[in-house]
Specification:
By secondary structure, the chain is an all-alpha fold. It folds into two domains: 94 residues, no CATH class; 156 residues. Helix 6 runs parallel beside helix 8. The chain starts with a helix and ends with a helix. The mean pLDDT is 93. The protein binds zinc ion.
Length: 251
């Protein structure tokens, strides 16, 4: 790994810290810039030396310095995850426009996925702007394949919308909007791989949770995070996976 990859990873940790603020505040309709970070329990402003991503959480033992209330583990996890995602994005695309755009897409996916996990909703406030950004970026990044990306958005929408009609409750409208965004950023045939991965990952995790008796047969689990995870995998490694798949299929 080069020094630039490391630096971009560290930038990811800092961005992750900001994504936590978004995950905390956007669902509550609060401003993400004002007021500065406070402990949600004792409301004391958090000192700048306690806002160092990952390290502060470890130094404080996962508790507020003032009131000792637990800081959600998600705060630590999202910081670390974003750092890792940024490192992988740079390793994949290097110094390029693609790195910047994919990093923005991944940051949006992280915020959408964690809000879905905690509140069981894919927020319009996030997914609609995401679709607009993707619509603007498609002709910029993929001018010659413009229609293939547009068609992938429509196809993803059609598949999930159909499932939501055939099996009410299996799929939320939020997931249907999220797949439009994912189709627009991954294109054809990657969207097919994305849907396949999301269903396989979702099925495996649901089966695992059933086995551990964490959920029962009547429960449903949020599908948004699986779409987001599959989206990340396909954005970075879709081409390689599809090439490998074609090689296997042709023997
Ligand atoms: Zn506190």
């Amino acid at each position: 790994m080069t020094i630039l990859t490391w630096m971009y990873g560290v930038l990811g940790l800092v961005i992750g810290s900001f994504l936590n603020v978004c995950i905390d505040r956007i669902p509550l309709d609060q401003s993400i810039s004002n007021p500065p970070s406070r402990c949600p329990h004792c409301e004391k402003r958090i000192a700048s030396y306690d806002l160092i991503p990952v390290i502060s959480y470890l130094v404080l033992g996962g508790r507020c310095r003032n009131c000792k209330e637990k800081i959600p583990f998600r705060v630590f996890f999202v910081e670390l995850l974003t750092g890792l995602v940024f490192t992988l994005v740079w390793s994949r695309f290097g110094q390029s426009w693609q790195t910047l755009v994919v990093s923005i897409y991944c940051s949006l996916l992280i915020v959408i996925a964690f809000i879905d996990l905690e509140h069981r909703k894919v927020l319009n406030l996030l997914v609609f702007p995401a679709i607009w950004i993707a619509l603007i970026m498609v002709p910029v990044l993929h001018f010659e394949n413009f229609w293939s990306y547009l068609a992938a958005g429509v196809a993803g929408f059609a598949v999930l919308f159909l499932i939501s009609v055939i099996r009410p409750g299996a799929m939320g409208m939020g997931d249907v909007k999220l797949i439009v965004f994912l189709g627009l950023i991954t294109g054809f045939p990657d969207i097919i791989l994305l849907l396949f991965l999301a269903f396989v990952l979702g099925g495996l995790i649901a089966g695992f949770l059933l086995l551990l008796k964490k959920i029962n047969r009547k429960d449903s689990i949020a599908f948004g995070p699986f779409l987001a995870l599959a989206g990340f995998i396909v954005l970075l490694y879709g081409d390689q996976i599809l090439a490998w798949w074609t090689r296997m299929a042709s023997g």
